[in-house]
Amino acid sequence: MKYFLLCMLLLPVMRSEAQELYIYTEPASNIPAKSISAKLSANYAEGMRGESKGLVQRYRPEMYMGLSKNFMLRASGTFANMHTSAFKFESASLYGKYRFLSKDEAHRHFRMAAFADASVSKAPFRYDEIALMGNKTGAEAGVIATQLINKLAISGTVSHVQVLDKSRFEDAPLNLPYQAMNYFLSAGYLLFPRKYEDYRQTNFNIYTEILAQQTLDTKRYYVDMAPGVQFIFNSNSKLNLGYRFQLGSDMNRMARSSVQLSFERTFFGAL
């Protein structure tokens, strides 16, 4: 009974935000206050490892904590064989997001948030692409803006990332990228249900995301596209499937395309 009442209270929130639960990026909205979400993501690609090409994989367990309606934390780690022949622990990271602007109306809202991320990785520094999800030790900070209009949600993210690898602080640092700007544009649309009648209805969302990066020291770039689909079950569980592929780049990258599968379960009121 307690769970049912909680879902009834949260249903208007989940209705309006379902289509902005993006697969590859974060929206300006947070998970519900006093709630916890557990997520497991799997990433598969045909990548370079040494001189050979083959299937590489990475698994990322994450824990989200909604400390208030405006502030959330995320702790995560990665296990992979993307940089080594052995599958093993790769990295740990801590992410925080603060929503500082909310303009909410019926069937629409505009929100902005600031975020910071820090990661420690055991992976070797091999590729130009700067990503804190397992690949690099570093820090990132940025701003997110998300606009929801009925069943369409569009979000943009701009962030600055710094690599803190030990090679950067040597007397003769290598000619590697240590800082970059990220530019992300995400769109999500709620296809089903056409009309909400019960919190147990399955949601079906479709997404398209543009992910771009420009390094500031070596002046290299990439632009990727990432379409995906999402199912939300019982208003508390999400199943995501996305395919990311390169549109253009002059970087030395591990892979030009990858598939991501993830599942997330939210525990409302757990805190």
TrEMBL record:
Keyword set, alphabetical order: Signal
Keyword Signal: yes
Signal peptide limits: 1-18
Name this polypeptide is given: DUF3316 domain-containing protein
Species of provenance: Niabella yanshanensis
